[in-house]
Amino acid sequence: MRRWLAHLIVLALLAAACGWACASLDMTWNWGIIWEYRQAFWKGWWTTLGLALAALLASSLIGLAAAVMLRSRFAIVEAVARVYVELIRGTPLLVQLLVGWYVVAAALHVGTGYRTAVGVLVLAMFSGAYMAEIFRGGLDAIPKAQVDSARAIGLTRWQAFRLVIFPQAVRIVLPAVAGQLVSLIKDSSLLSVLSIGEFTFAARNVNSATYSTLESYLPLAVGYLALTLPLSALSRWLERRFRYEAA
Amino acid sequence: MNLAIHGLVQRFTDPRSATQTTVLDGLDLVTGTIQALVLIGPSGGGKSTLLRILAGLDVPTAGTVAFDGAPLPRDEEGLIGYRRTVGTVFQAYNLFPHLTAMQNLLLPLVHVHGLSEAEADDRVREPLDRFGLAAHAHKRPAELSGGQKQRVAILRALVVRPQRLFLDEPTSALDPEMTGEVLDMIGELKAAGTQFVLVTHEMGFARRVADEIAFIADGECPALAPPGEFFAVCREPRVVSFLERVHSA
Questions:
Q1: Which residues of B touch A (CB under 8 A)?
Q2: Distance CA B135, CA B153 (A)
Q3: Count of CB contacts below 8 A, A vs B?
Q4: Could you read off the pLDDT of A56-96 as tens digits, one per residue?
Q5: Secondary structure of chain B in the HEC alphabet?
Q6: Which of A10, A67, A147, B39 sits between 20 and 30 A of A203, alpha carbons compared?
Q7: Residues of chain A positioned with their CB less than 8 A from the CB of B157
Q8: Does residue A80 sit within a domain?
């Protein structure tokens, strides 16, 4: 009760500060022309949602595989995963997208029709490196006694992973995964450099057609918030939901 | 059961420093035909390491172990098969926290022993009642007391109808009252004819429940005897000093 009131007060103060800044800059707004482009924004927003969901699914699989490899007994398998994670996390997504499309995809003679697919794949690889560390942390957090108990009742290694380790790890990592999805949605804005028609690309087009920069980009911020705020709330809820299961 | 152990060695190598630790150092132990064997001895003497080998969880560096003349397998395939014929309960964290007590009991029956959900359900009802756990069947481990958790864990090991149980200090993480309820349950199993090997620090209970007591220290078994004899006449110096310390504590 008090909490949401506090949030509301902070938001009101923020809005007042923005209003004061705009008023002191003596800006003239041109919202009318932006309204005419609403279909472009709308289409871009849905595209971003679809891209992010596809990349989330792919990056979860990539991340889980990399996490299992990071924990491998075989040095070479661990090394492959470690190099992947460090290389991806240490370089900008922008560079990865450009190299992925203009070098790797070009070398493999991938047609222009697959531009979006390649973009999503690079995004998934990027996010997967972060997911790998999240999953590895979750798997490491399962006490060794759980593995012993699973073996003691006669489960095979695969059964122990599937029935005992993985379900517990998922509960541990879910809040962090939801948080990673927030980043992934914002990071998907960089796909615009490959001229993929997502939300940011739509705003850029509107801007170059209307020369109304702030009017083009402010709706962008609102559109991303509409996706990321519910996810942040979900992440916090998951954290509370699974806390009681510990021990 | 007849347990025969000859020249058992267990060494662990630290993967980073490559230093070796010898936990079991040529241990010999041959029991008579008994129902309950209790392992006692100082901490770090090798009791738990020995129990893990007996339960088929670890493979020894050298030596042989045989129950009723049948040697333990050394390959993972054979060991999985062996572990399915026995039950093991550890100090703590036996139960899977994401499953209810009931689901913990059903998991090995359904996924290891191939029972249908209905058959498994039938099999666990009666023992849940008998050990006063029916009211807690649908709670998760976090909602159970330490004693309840250990009793569910023992039950999970029992419902698969194992040839014998291995219990590694099942009460050492519990307060005295809960210790009592778990020991009572083990006492009932003894009366019902269940075979088991138990590691414990509860000397009074060891005396009551054991057919033979094995003293494990420095990776060896310097004394093995029925409880009366063990506590009354054992003159092995390590046993004498251990019992003195336990009794003065």
A1: 55, 57, 80, 83-84, 87-88, 90, 92-98, 107-108, 111-113, 140-142, 156-157, 160
A2: 16
A3: 63
A4: 999 999 999 999 999 988 999 999 999 999 999 999 999 99
A5: CCEEEEEEEEEEECCCCCCEEEEEEEEEEECCCCCEEEEECCCCCCHHHHHHHHCCCCCCCEEEEEECCEECCCCHHHHHHHHCCEEEECCCCCCCCCCCHHHHHHHHHHHCCCCCHHHHHHHHHHHHHHCCCHHHCCCCHHHCCHHHHHHHHHHHHHCCCCCEEEEECCCCCCCHHHHHHHHHHHHHHHHCCCCEEEECCCHHHHHHHCCEEEEEECCEEEEEECHHHHHHHCCCHHHHHHHHHHHHC
A6: A10
A7: 152-153
A8: yes
For position A229, which CATH number holds?
A: 1.10.3720.10
Cα–Cα distance, A246 to A169 (Å, whole number): 11
Q: Which overall architecture, per CATH, does domain B3-248 show?
A: 3-Layer(aba) Sandwich (3.40)
User: Under an 8 A CB cutoff, do A154 and B142 touch?
Assistant: no
CA of A242, closest CA in chain B: separation in Å?
10
pLDDT of residue A247: 42
- ipTM of this predicted structure: 0.90
Global confidence as pTM: 0.80
Among chain A residues, CA nearest to B56: A152
Per-domain boundaries in chain B: 3-248
Greatest extent of chain A over all pairs of C-alpha atoms, in Å: 75
**Residue A1 resides in a domain:** no
Question: Which residues constitute the domain of residue A211?
Answer: 38-243
Q: Would the CB atoms of B96 and A247 count as touching at under 8 Å? A: no
Q: Does any domain span residue A21?
A: no
**A141 in a domain, yes or no?**
yes
Residues B219 and B24: their CA atoms lie apart, in Å, by 4
pLDDT tens for each residue of B123-148? 999 999 988 999 999 999 999 999 99
Please state, in angstroms and rounded to a whole number, the distance separating the CA atoms of residues A155 and B113: 10
**With the C-alpha atoms ordered A139, A140, A146, A147, is the resulting torsion angle positive or negative?**
positive
Question: Cβ contact (<8 Å) for B98 and A244?
Answer: no
For Cα atoms B39, B43, B45, give the angle at the middle one, nearest 5 degrees. 65
Can you give the pLDDT at residue A33?
A: 83
Measured CA to CA in angstroms, residue A112 lies from A106, A117, A187, A189 at distances of 9, 10, 22, 19
pLDDT digits (tens, 9 = 90+) for A209-237: 888 888 889 889 999 999 999 988 888 88
Q: Domain count for chain A, please give it.
A: 1
